[in-house]
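Page 37, continued from 36.
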């Protein structure tokens, strides 16, 4: 059995880019990758390996996040963790920036319903690489400060934000290409 050869507490993070095989394969640029991903996830889960599904959000999948969540709930019943991740704009992502980038605020409109489906199904959910000002307050507890200190940057407007110390900020490379809208959170203390 595969688990006998794995270190204890091993978990494997695997991206699913769409509920639709053709879109998933287009995003990965590998024909058949959706099927290969499915087989890999099923094999790991059937071997008792902890699988974390990662949904990296792009212009190609952000409006179908609910359908991706439904796929995970219905097909991968043993999955206990799903992470929604904003992209770091570098490499091929930077070359194809206009084609794939979608802003944080537009993304969250679709993401919150997908998250709620997963939570209702008993799946642990986290949000990575999003500034808190783009996320509804009720979801802040699942936001992670995930960007490495050497890659993180904050907008000047972040200096007046009450939540800056809890916020993950922006990837430096993304910030330099997008200079995203920042809406400082001003809480009364």
């Amino acid at each position: 059995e595969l688990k006998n050869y794995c270190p204890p507490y091993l978990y494997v993070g695997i991206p699913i880019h769409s509920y639709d095989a053709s879109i998933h394969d287009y995003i990965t640029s590998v024909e058949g990758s959706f099927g290969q991903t499915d087989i890999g996830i099923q094999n790991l889960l059937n071997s008792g390996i902890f699988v974390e599904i990662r949904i990296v959000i792009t212009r190609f999948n952000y409006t179908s996040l609910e359908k991706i969540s439904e796929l995970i709930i219905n097909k991968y019943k043993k999955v206990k963790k799903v992470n929604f991740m904003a992209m770091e704009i570098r490499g091929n992502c930077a070359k194809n920036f206009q084609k794939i980038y979608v802003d944080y605020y537009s993304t969250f409109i679709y993401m919150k319903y997908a998250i709620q489906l997963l939570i209702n199904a008993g799946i642990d959910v986290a949000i990575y690489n999003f500034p808190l000002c783009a996320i509804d307050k009720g979801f802040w507890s699942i936001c992670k400060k995930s960007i490495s200190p050497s890659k993180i940057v904050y907008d000047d407007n972040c200096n007046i934000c009450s939540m800056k110390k809890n916020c993950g900020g922006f990837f430096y490379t993304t910030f330099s290409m997008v200079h995203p809208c920042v809406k400082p959170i001003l809480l009364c203390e």
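The beta strands are 11-15, 50-57, 81-86, 124-128, 143-144, 152-153, 170-171. Flag for discussion at group meeting. The CA atoms of residues 73 and 120 lie 10 Å apart.
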